[in-house]
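Q:
My hope is that you can spare some time for a protein that puzzles me. I hope you can help me see how the letters and the tokens relate. Thank you; the sequence and its tokens follow:
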Amino acid sequence: MGVRLDHGDEELADNHEINVTPFIDVMLVLLIIFMVAAPLSTVDVAVDLPASNARPQPRPEKPLFLTVKEDLTLALGDTPIERGLLPMALDAQTQNNREERIFVRADKVVPYGDVMEVMNLLRSAGYLKIGLVGLEAAPNQGSPDQGTSGQGTSPAAANVPPEVGSGAAR
């Protein structure tokens, strides 16, 4: 039995390669931790919003409606009107009172961009008080997404006449 303790001139060669196996193991463990933790961090936060104590706006005696029809034509009250003549027609209807609220209502199929274009026309004409009109489904008919045919609808805002609908914007 012989043991050689002196290695003499034999030297072990340096290994310059990095062992990446532990690095990959750590990365996989971190990936699993984040995959488990990510869904837990998206919890819905319940918020109890305070009630508003603002007084309802007085209802106008005769509201002025600007209607955007399905074919994108405009009607001021019941009178069809061209977009270019809108500022003059509004001035005539309101006796140049630019503080009067204009109620904008649009057909359900009118794209949002076209409604915004009409609101911009009102703004450029100097009418900054704009009310948006819509109908809210009655509570027994389900969500508004289910759609209604106009029957069983009720006004949603206290600051507009009952036949007007809901919402107001500035």
